[in-house]
């Protein structure tokens, strides 16, 4: 017989898997802004060989465009021939304004490396260098909360061969991880 804690862990793992599946299916079938759920996925990996935190964000492209437009960029046409010349700058600034990362008690600012766009999904890549030891992380994530009350941001973290998944929403914008 499983303990309540074990059942809860299994439930969360299943829930995360279902949400990731929904995001993948939706990315193949949704082509307008009226999709039924709002989700982003972030992955944070501590690369001990290079002493870096490798960070990627996955957004629905239309959600990211809408958030950027609400924040004053005008239409930027991500992934199109006439994409705004400052698109990377706008995305980098938006991520910086809506996330906060403290490592071992010190605020760190990720460097925006670039983006990839595939149909309805946009991947953004960032990095924080000189991270040899991780004892604690405080993460704030309010990405896309300005476009939907129902926005959910999943953050998968892999550090020291440990994996954790955090769920952010309007009621839970900041979380602490002690390692």
Question: How would you explain this protein's 3D organization?
Answer:
The radius of gyration is 17 Å and the shape is globular. Mean pLDDT is 87; it is low at 28-32. The strands form 2 sheets. The chain has a 6-stranded mixed β-sheet with strand order 5-6-2-1-8-9, with helices on both faces. The longest helix has 26 residues, at 4-29. Helix content is 27%, strand content 38%. It has 3 helices and 10 strands. It has helices at residues 4-29, 61-70, 87-98; strands spanning 39-47, 52-60, 99-103, 106-108, 111-118, 121-128, 136-141, 152-159, 162-168, 174-178. It has one domain (4-178). It has 179 residues and is of the alpha+beta class. A hairpin with a 2-residue loop joins strand 5 and strand 6. The two termini are 29 Å apart.
């Amino acid at each position: 017989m499983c303990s309540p804690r074990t059942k809860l862990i299994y439930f969360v793992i299943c829930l995360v898997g279902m949400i990731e599946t929904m995001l993948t299916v939706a990315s193949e079938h949704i082509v307008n802004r009226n999709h039924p759920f709002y989700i982003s996925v972030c992955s944070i990996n501590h690369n001990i060989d290079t002493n870096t935190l490798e960070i990627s964000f996955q957004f629905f492209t239309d959600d990211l465009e809408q958030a950027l437009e609400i924040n004053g960029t005008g239409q930027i046409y991500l992934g199109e021939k006439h994409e705004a010349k400052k698109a990377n700058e706008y995305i980098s600034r938006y991520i910086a304004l809506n996330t906060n990362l403290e490592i071992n008690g010190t605020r760190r600012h990720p460097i925006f490396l670039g983006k990839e766009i595939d149909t309805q999904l946009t991947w953004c890549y960032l990095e924080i260098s000189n991270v040899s030891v991780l004892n604690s992380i405080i993460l704030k994530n309010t990405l896309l909360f300005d476009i939907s009350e129902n926005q959910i941001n999943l953050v998968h973290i892999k550090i020291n061969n440990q994996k954790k998944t955090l769920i952010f929403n309007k009621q839970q914008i900041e979380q602490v991880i002690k390692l």
